[in-house]
Amino acid sequence: MRAMVIDDSRAMRMILKRIVAKLNFEVTEAGDGQEALDLLSTMTEVPELALIDWNMPNMNGLEFVTKARADPRLREMTLVMVTTESEQSQIVRALAAGAHEYVIKPFTEGAMIEKLALLGLVPTGASS
Amino acid sequence: MSVDVVVNEDDLAEMVEQVWVSYLDPEGVSPLVPTGDEAQTTEVHSSVSITGSWTGHVVYASSTAAARRAAAAFLAMEDGEVSQDDLSDVLGELANIVGGNVKAMLPPGCFLSLPQVVLAPEATTIYPSAERITGLYGTWDGEPVSVSMWQSRSDLKKEEDTE
């Protein structure tokens, strides 16, 4: 399985990368939505999972989700917002745009793995 | 429209505890210990601005040693391996996380800026049209760490005018 981590913070990318790498994902990184789209356009195999921050320079996470959902090539990719934007209205906007799940920072490793398990991307109980 | 801000020191303490448990002290052996010492000296700081129905800033400040340790924890490296870019990145993310959670407690219609990091004491940055309204001051393994909220004076004046 492959995952893409999209966040302008290298530290947060590192944390997310550690978590999904433990679950045997091959991980690529991007610092914003535009960089992610550029990278995806060069890939022959699209990652099954994208973990996406909301507030980023150049192209934010919501724009990325909207564009990814409109691209037939990326339609199968599971999109998880990982963000400090925790208001109900923001969560609704992200889900309406096409995000599959929403994780609010700060999150523990166990909480992230549980979310991925709910999406069927890791075996249930992998966090324990 | 004027809004009452309901975020207080206890709320900041709860948010900070979540950050510590999630990233900086997952074993729960080295929490941030509140001291209430507003005069403590910090050496680096980061902030995010909030605009909209509430206007102001959320500021994270610490000693360089505490920032280095935080960066090492985030990046899974030794303190001595942490570069200045690492410090800036982690300080910015800490302000972003705390600021985002503060925003969630404010009235709807607020927007969060990208973080700004200054590798210099908090006292070197002046928020000329804002006033500190609450803060959490403590130590992490003896090193000073604080989170404070600054509200726009024009926002505060509107609140006074409506009272």
In short:
The complex is a heterodimer of chains A (about 130) and B (about 160). By secondary structure, chain A is α/β, with parallel strands linked by helices. Chain A has helices spanning about 10-20, 35-40, 60-70, 90-95, 110-120, and strands spanning about 1-5, 25-30, 50, 80-85, 100-105.
Strand content of chain A: 15-25%
**What is the distance, rounded to the nearest whole angstrom, between the alpha carbons of the first and last residues of chain A?**
21 Å
How large is the count of helical segments of chain A?
5
CATH topology descriptor of chain B = Chemotaxis protein chec
CATH architecture of chain B: 3-Layer(aba) Sandwich
SS element count, helices of chain B: 4
- Content-based structural category of chain A: alpha/beta
Radius of gyration of chain A: 13 Å
Main interface: chain pair and counts: A-B, 22 and 26 residues
Low-pLDDT runs of 5+ residues of chain A are none
Oligomer: heterodimer
